[in-house]
Amino acid sequence: MTQIRTNILTTPINFVPNDADASGRSFGEDEIRMLREVLERGVLISQYGKVVPRLENAFAAWCDVPHCTAVSSGTAALHTAIAAVDPQPGDEFISSPITDMGAIMPVFYQGAIPIFADVDPITCNVTAETIAARISSRTKAIIVTHLFGLPCDMDPIMALAKKHGIMVIEDAAQGFGATYKGRKVGTIGDVGCFSLQQGKHITCGEGGFVVTRDAELARFMKLYHDKGWGFGDAQPDHEFLGLNYRMTELQGAVAMAQLPKLDEFVAKRRELAARLTQRLSRIDGIICPPDHEDCTHVYWRYSIRVVEPLTAADLDRMSNALRSIGARTAPRYTQKLAFEYGFIKNRKMFGNSGFPFNAHTRSRGAELMYDRSRYPGAVNGLDHLLCIGWNERYDESVVDLIATTILRSLKGDLQ
Ligand SMILES: Cc1ncc(COP(=O)(O)O)c(C=O)c1O
pLDDT tens-digit profile of 255-295? Predict the structure, then answer.
């Protein structure tokens, strides 16, 4: 925990815990003991190891689902889930234009096309209405991102998917422990994906999970992450195209030591966020992230919406002031919408073949809607968004410092 108790505004920078290093991560004796046990056993590969299978069982139990496969990253988790949908070349996945590329790139790798749904400008999450506007005869699945740890409104999304007979993949990389009407995100759709990358709620540097209630999907994903190999079968075969996305026992050891702390981390993040919300809600022009019983936020980041009478310059002023006290900020988060990144704009994939866009049997072009004018919610959402790094190792003094810094920057005391 931070030791800072003095007048923070005059204290030098770098005392706000940061998830990019030890100050904002909780590694201790348990992680070291688990790592030592793995090394002493000498089995680093999960196929013959003990820790990753235990971790998979423990995470499945934490989710209250029957099946979990641990993988090497959140991107690997999403790729594994997307492959399990088994798209034909040119099939469509509806996703959010505000997300990590780990949820988009695997769609292309599977020869499919991401189609983007607009978002609610306040939550920056996709909704059943925005998704419905993008469904076509080629839609195979929906990927919902629970952005910053705030659940999407899942009931109408699930009803829509059911009506069209399409699958739902939940990207819960930022959403460990967030609940929607009492259910953990990642367990509501057909497959849930999680990331254990350095900055997530729990971490082993890189890693991830896919979870599902469906035994067939579970078997596919178990094989897919191991080159399509039926490991443990009487007569194993490479049954289909797959990759090596196996988690190592070393990653598993750290993740296994982190998992028992997860509920405590989530509770702490929520408690600290409630304090900031209470402090900021009095400021005209700042809208704090929604959090209520039916839709609990787990604050991977604390995102505020900055509106009139505050201006874009105020947003930047707040961001700079927060950085000056060592807090991490991301004004306007990704800034770009997903389809505005170079690799999509310039079709930098599969040589100069044009694949998978040329496998797309819709008329190609306008219907892709890769144009920001089609995303008023997302453009508005990002324009007004200030993301603030959040961490279970903050304490009340750090939260108060963040609140005071925001207030003082708005008063013009700080630049
Ligand atoms: C929403 C979201 N999806 C997917 C990913 C990809 O996860 P990873 O970086 O572990 O590959 C991340 C994180 O980085 C993420 O935040």
Answer: 999 999 999 999 999 999 999 999 999 999 999 999 999 99
C-alpha 15 to ligand 1 mean position (Å): 26
Distance CA 401, CA 3 (A): 13
- 203: Cβ below 6 Å to ligand 1? no
Give yes or no for a contact between 11 and 322, defined as CB atoms under 8 angstroms apart.
Answer: no
Backbone φ and ψ of 292, nearest 5° = -145, 170
Look at residue 288 and tell me if it is in a domain: no
Residue 366 resides in a domain = no
What is the model's pTM? Answer: 0.95
Concatenated DSSP letters of 183-208: EETTSSSSEEEEE--TTSSS-SSS-E
For residue 74 and ligand 1, the question of a CB distance below 6 A is answered with: yes
pLDDT band of residue 363 (cuts 50, 70, 90) is low
Q: Is 326 close to ligand 1, i.e. is its CB under 6 Å away?
A: no
d(CA 74, ligand 1 centre) in Å: 5
- Contact between 71 and 209 under an 8 Å Cβ cutoff? The reply is yes
List pLDDT tens digits, range 327-351. 999 999 999 999 999 999 999 999 9
Q: What are phi and psi of 95, to 5 degrees?
A: -135, 180
Return the ligand 1 atom nearest residue 195 CA. 10
191 phi-psi bin (left φ>0, alpha ψ -120 to 50, beta other)? beta
Residue 331 resides in a domain: no
CATH number at residue 102: 3.40.640.10
Kindly give the interhelix angle for 29-41 and 249-258, rounded to the nearest 10 degrees. 150
Range of the domain at 194: 29-260
Number of structural domains (the chain) is 1
Q: Is residue 328 part of a domain?
A: no
Does residue 192 line the site of ligand 1, with CB under 6 A? no
Q: In a 3-state reduction of DSSP, which class is residue 397? A: helix
Distance from the alpha carbon of residue 204 to the mean position of ligand 1, in angstroms: 14
Burial class (CB in 10 A: 0-12, 13-18, 19+), 286: buried
Distance between Cα 197 and ligand 1 center (Å): 7
